[in-house]
Design a protein that fits this description.
The protein is 36% helix and 24% strand. With 251 residues, the chain is α+β, with helices and mostly antiparallel strands.
């Protein structure tokens, strides 16, 4: 066999969920701390929270919360995007939301999870024991208040989703979705901002209750109206936030 016939050696590593301690230093330097429940804590109390945390790395396509499973943990997303969904009895899937950095998962459940959660791209999370975190909340009122605020926000989002699915047109639904995906502080004015949307169009269609074809036509209409540009399959540039908000509101 000649040198040209020798194939390069490749090493394949199984992609699996990796669990490791989070550590205080990781929490203090976390880029999403200001957007998560951790923002309610000072540096000393943060160390107590960090002592309860495990860092979880979930590869794309892997689930980490199962509908109906015993709810033993909370999850704080620090990197990547998660799809939240329910499977209907006939096998259809309804996506109920997307969670990105700063989102806290598992509050609005009782003893069992009421949804499935799956990584869209590679996701990093902080995982907390529900029992141990509840115990810490008794000592840290600021953390308890922050978690109550998160739970209230989840209820508001659920009401908005009901309105979106029940009353809005296809264009209004897509515009509302894009407005919801805008970073905090970028929901007013006409400044441009770029959105990274790692979820496929089928996920967006499932979330806003449309077909993929209708979602594609709605994207094309928003583009023709110069409200957005689509530089790549996974990116949307919002060119007119005020105009997009008017479409979302049906005005």
């Amino acid at each position: 066999m000649s040198d040209q016939d020798v194939l390069p050696q490749t090493v394949t590593r199984p992609r699996r969920i990796v669990v490791q301690p989070a550590g205080h230093d990781n929490c203090a330097e976390c880029e999403v701390r200001s957007r998560s429940v951790c923002a309610a804590l000072d540096i000393d109390d943060l160390s107590r929270l960090a002592a309860l945390a495990q860092q979880i790395v979930v590869p794309a396509g892997q689930g980490f919360i199962a509908d109906g499973a015993r709810a033993e943990h909370f999850y704080n997303v620090t990197h990547g995007t998660v799809r939240l969904y329910k499977l209907l009895p006939d096998g259809r899937r309804q996506i109920t939301g997307f969670a990105g950095p700063g989102h806290f998962l598992g509050l609005a459940v009782s003893t069992c999870y009421a949804f499935d959660a799956e990584a869209i791209d590679d996701v990093t999370l902080c995982r907390f024991s529900r029992t141990r975190l509840h115990g810490l909340m008794g000592d840290l009122p600021s953390l308890e208040r922050r978690l109550l605020e998160v739970a209230a926000s989840e209820l508001v989002l659920a009401q908005e989703q009901m309105l979106l699915l029940g009353r809005k047109t296809a264009r209004e639904r897509l515009a509302s979705f894009l407005m919801h995906m805008l970073p905090d502080g970028c929901t007013h004015g006409s400044d441009q901002t770029r959105l990274h949307l790692p979820m496929p169009r089928a996920d967006i269609a499932d979330y806003i209750g449309l077909t993929v074809e209708t979602v594609s036509r709605s994207f094309s209409w928003l583009k023709s109206e110069r409200l957005i540009a689509i530089p790549s399959a996974l990116d949307v540039e919002v060119r007119d936030i005020a105009g997009l908000r008017q479409v979302a509101n049906g005005s």
